[in-house]
Amino acid sequence: MAILRIYTDGACSGNQHETNVGGWGAVLEYGQTQKELWGGERNTTNNRMEMTALIEALSALKKTAQQIEVFSDSAIENFQNGMETISLLTIFSMSRK
Asked: What are the φ and ψ backbone dihedral angles of 82, each rounded to 5 degrees?
């Protein structure tokens, strides 16, 4: 079985201001097949765009059980929510139920 590789990135000019423009992109590779995803928002943050890239890539998957490698220039695997650290992949998994 081929490994699905996901390459992600996100950026924003400034953080949470109505004139900001942020963008995200993801490339999914499975064997010789490649798919590109992208989007953007106003009044956002760099971290939000980084997480959005991965969430959108995972949302585009057709199979739920397969080996995945994620490549990112950001430490987006965990974030603080109150006093506990929650894995982004756990949240994604919960949202797909």
From this structure: 70, -125
pTM for the full model? Answer: 0.73
Q: Per-residue pLDDT tens for 73-96?
A: 876 554 444 444 445 555 444 444
Element (H, E) at 6: strand 4-12
Sorted by sequence, the CB contacts under 8 Å of residue 53 that are 6+ apart come out as 8, 9, 10, 24, 25, 26, 37, 72
Give the burial class of 94: count Cβ atoms within 10 A of its Cβ; 0-12 exposed, 13-18 middle, 19 or more buried.
exposed
Angle of the 46-59 helix axis to the 88-95 helix axis, nearest 10: 50
How many residues make up the chain in this entry?
97
